[in-house]
């Protein structure tokens, strides 16, 4: 019994020693040395849907440099719901309409699985027009689309009013 207690104590001490700002492994691989710029939770009608965290070099968010956005889900979501919502939000932001965004939707369908409670999706904006998506730490797909950084990541990082604006500011480290 003593060896088990000793092992558990050692594990507890080593976990406690991890920095609170430690980024997910996929962020470390894609953006070595990136630090958290901010975090926020998203609720609808009091239901906690996901937690979001943003990461960038030096913990300093900029639309002009690579960054990562991680969503940790507290509720299940179907792939079709994620796709429909993303395309709808991008349409509202002036990125096109359902017809012109259909090729992008096909790319995103490879990126978005059905989500279960506890799943994590990370998207790394590698360039103005490119991103790499990870699902629970494993690389899932790459996306290329003109203006993708602002059109897609703006859903979370460029909220225009009310709670969306507050969430965006927190994620960028502006709040």
Automatic annotation (TrEMBL):
Signal keyword on record: yes
Signal sequence region: 1-22
Keywords (A to Z) from UniProt: Signal
Name this protein carries in UniProt: Chalcone isomerase domain-containing protein
Species: Terricaulis silvestris
């Amino acid at each position: 019994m003593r060896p088990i207690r000793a092992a558990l104590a050692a594990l507890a001490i080593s976990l406690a020693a991890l920095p609170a700002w430690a980024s997910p492994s996929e962020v470390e691989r894609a953006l070595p040395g990136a630090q958290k710029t901010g975090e926020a939770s998203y609720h609808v009608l009091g239901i906690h849907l996901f937690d979001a965290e943003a990461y960038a070099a030096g913990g300093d968010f900029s639309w002009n440099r690579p960054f990562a956005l991680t969503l940790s889900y507290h509720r299940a979501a179907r792939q079709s719901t994620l796709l429909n919502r993303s395309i709808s939000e991008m349409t509202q932001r002036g990125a096109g309409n359902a017809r012109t965004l259909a090729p992008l939707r096909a790319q995103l369908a490879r990126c978005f699985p059905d989500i279960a409670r506890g799943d994590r999706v990370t998207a790394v904006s590698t360039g103005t027009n490119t991103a790499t998506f990870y699902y629970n730490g494993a690389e899932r797909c790459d996306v290329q689309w003109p203006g993708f950084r602002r059109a897609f990541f703006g859903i979370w990082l460029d909220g225009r009013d009310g709670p969306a604006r507050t969430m965006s500011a927190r994620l960028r480290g502006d709040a």
